[in-house]
Design brief:
This protein is an alpha/beta fold. Helix content is about 55%, strand content about 10%. It contains ten helices and five strands, in the order βαβαααααβαβααβα. The structure holds cytidine-5'-monophosphate.
């Protein structure tokens, strides 16, 4: 493995739509390069969850800002926050610029902590860490993402309807790509990884090739 130079703030930014496999990829890369890991989606989910818990409407901006200030990155509970409804609600509170600003500041502080981090989300390469050392944009067709989600639900004994899952994914994409503040889009200097026809292992290897190449050039310089 090519070692990451001992300097603060080495950052790998991973963006992409829901269900493209960026979470798994981020975890594998953080393990491999021994970097901290932050799934920034959990921060938006934590805000949405707080509002849902208090039966507050998701367009209550001041309550969302308060919840955002209270988000503690060390206490994000994936088991609680991973529910599908929480993800849907998260994409509604994520449209508010003031909420985003509060969370982005926490995410940037995390990224700066040595030895650096892998962050995954929607706006990491474009807004949170525009100077990231590596930027990856991980995508897959909506149909493939819906098929994967259905398989995941069925693997734990659940049932779901493919057409409904697909409609959900398309709706979430539209909200994330269409919002005015920090819409989901690849950074101009992002490496694109389309996982439609690619297993996670192949995506991991492709990402490592990109990263090792950057590290090799840097070590030579
Ligand atoms: O990735 P995940 O499904 O956990 O994200 C939930 C929602 O949070 C996304 O649909 C998106 O609206 C929002 N989000 C965001 N910016 C990020 C991460 C997530 O707007 N960096």
């Amino acid at each position: 493995m090519i070692a990451i130079a001992e300097r603060a703030g080495f950052t790998i930014a991973i963006d992409g739509p829901a269900g493209a496999g960026k979470g798994t990829l981020a975890r594998r890369l953080a393990d491999h390069y021994r970097l901290n890991l932050l799934d920034t989606g959990l921060t938006y989910r934590a805000v949405a969850y707080a509002l849902l818990q208090h039966a507050l409407p998701l367009d209550n901006v001041s309550a969302a800002e308060t919840a955002a200030r209270q988000v503690d990155l060390a206490k994000l509970d994936r088991a609680v926050l991973s529910a599908h409804a929480v993800g849907e609600a998260a994409s509604k509170v994520a449209v508010f610029p003031t909420v985003r600003r509060i969370l982005v500041e926490k995410q940037r502080d995390f990224a700066k902590t040595p030895p650096g981090a892998v962050l995954d989300g929607r706006d990491i390469g474009t807004v949170v860490c525009p100077d990231a050392d590596i930027k990856l944009y991980v995508t897959a067709s909506a149909e493939v993402r819906a098929k994967r989600r259905l398989a995941e639900i069925e693997s734990i004994g659940g049932t779901a309807n493919f057409a409904e899952i697909l409609a959900d994914i398309v709706r979430r994409d539209e909200r994330d790509m269409g919002r005015a503040d920090s819409p989901l889009k690849p950074a101009a200097d992002a490496h694109l990884l389309d996982t439609s026809e690619m297993a996670i292992e192949a995506a991991f290897l492709a990402a490592r090739t990109v990263i090792d190449d950057v590290l090799a050039k840097r070590n030579k310089a």
